[in-house]
Prior knowledge:
Elements: E1 5-16, E2 20-31, H1 37-46, E3 52-64, E4 67-74, E5 77-85, E6 91-95, E7 98-107, E8 110-122, E9 125-128, E10 136-143, E11 148-156
Antiparallel strand pairs: 1-2, 1-11, 2-3, 3-4, 4-5, 5-6, 6-7, 7-8, 8-9, 8-10, 10-11
Amino acid sequence: MTRPSGVGCGVKVVSVGDDVTVMRGVGSFDVRHGTTLAARVLARLLGLPAAGVGVPTRLVVTRTRGVERWHRTFAGRDFVTEQRRTASGLMAERAGAFELLFRLDERGGVLRYRQVGFAFRLGPLRILLPRWMSPRVVARERASAAEIVITLRDFVV
């Protein structure tokens, strides 16, 4: 299993243009990997960070024309994904050829990411994979006037 369990990451909006928003943050994560061959292969295919405790993490989110590019750096190693809304209203986060699908739920100022799917992408083709093959993600965001706090509780492969 791969489990970045974060203490959270405070993200500050540092620049707003006509159609571009940039947010930056720092934090740390504990990253553990599974020992099964399937877990190791999936972690490698997804480009997940190396295992470690208190891994220094930097996040830069760039929002342009409805697409957010999340550039995370774990102890100097980059992990970049893109997030966008699907036609069905889900939020899709793509890492290489893989895509996680979330239904977003906002309650009391907290945005929760409820994972509803995992897919292999080849251009516009989306092949939904069975739940047993899917990593599991539990995450939320809380925003205030000064910052956005992102907490990733579990990412299990």
